[in-house]
Amino acid sequence: MKIGFIGCGNMGSAMIGGILKKGIYRKEEIIVSNLTEEGSRRSREKLGVVTTLDNREVVKQAGTGVLAVKPQFYEEVLTEIRDELTEEHLIIGIAPGKTLAWLEEACGKQLKIVRLMPNTPAQVGEGMTGACFNAKVTEEDRAEIRKLTESFGRMEFVPERLMDAVGAVSGCSPAYVFMFIEAMADGAVALGMPRKQAYAFAAQAVLGSAKMVLETGMHPGELKDMVTSPAGTTIEGVRTLEKQGFRSAVFEALIASAEKGKKL
């Protein structure tokens, strides 16, 4: 059975890339619909998958369909493909704000629905995906979803009430991390380091720090304390960040992101 993607932007491409790399599906078992012939050409050249300009063709050929279009197009797309859907289809939504109940109603049938919230690091195989599902999804389906999502990073099943939190803490936060890396690099440049080298030092510091959290299982505060020697340079930097409201700013950014996600 094929898997289909309606839309193939950055996230869809990242997901397909991981699926192909892990050999979960072959290129000929993946069908992608694009809005234009130019988009189809790019999908064929970049990914080597089967392409179409007809969204209905995707669900005709694929038992699993991923809605990889922007949230504002979900209703239009689901109205278009509704007559081709059967109770055996598994439909995957990756848009914030589109709940399981909303997707079920828009599909017009009682079928298997999964919501995923992946993030852009999926493009380099280091994504973090949150997932929830409706009552029709079986244990076998969940195992398949785990296999798909772990082809481009890590995943966790969460209750649907936490999906807005997932969107904030992993979906949106790469943008904040990129800003942090850029700011650290700017500081290093101000201290005389060449720009390219500054980005390398800053990015590797973030990558290594994240890996320490995941692999040691230690509390981030404990790891921070390991770096902050008494009367040293690090604690002086921490003091300055706290003075500028660093943690509070991050806290508020995530709350704002989650609130916005509920309205999409």
Summarize the structure.
With 264 residues, this protein is of the alpha/beta class. It is built from 11 helices and 8 strands. It has 2 domains: 2-158, NAD(P)-binding Rossmann-like Domain (Rossmann fold, 3-Layer(aba) Sandwich), CATH 3.40.50.720; 166-263, ProC C-terminal domain-like fold (Orthogonal Bundle), CATH 1.10.3730.10.
What is the topology?
Elements: E1 2-6, H1 10-21, E2 30-33, H2 37-47, E3 50-52, H3 55-61, E4 62-67, H4 74-81, E5 90-93, H5 100-107, E6 112-117, E7 127-133, H6 139-149, E8 153-157, H7 163-190, H8 195-216, H9 220-227, H10 233-243, H11 246-263
Parallel strand pairs: 1-2, 1-4, 2-3, 4-5, 5-6, 7-8
Antiparallel strand pairs: 6-7
Helix pairs in contact: 7-8, 7-11
Description:
This protein has helices at 10-21, 37-47, 55-61, 74-81, 100-107, 139-149, 163-190, 195-216, 220-227, 233-243, 246-263, and strands spanning 2-6, 30-33, 50-52, 62-67, 90-93, 112-117, 127-133, 153-157. The chain has 264 residues and is of the alpha/beta class. The protein has 2 domains: 2-158, NAD(P)-binding Rossmann-like Domain (Rossmann fold, 3-Layer(aba) Sandwich), CATH 3.40.50.720; 166-263, ProC C-terminal domain-like (ProC C-terminal domain-like fold, Orthogonal Bundle), CATH 1.10.3730.10. It has an 8-stranded mixed beta sheet with strand order 3-2-1-4-5-6-7-8, with helices on both faces. Helix 6 (139-149) links the parallel strand 7 and strand 8 (153-157). The chain is elongated and about 70 Å long. It starts with a strand and ends with a helix.
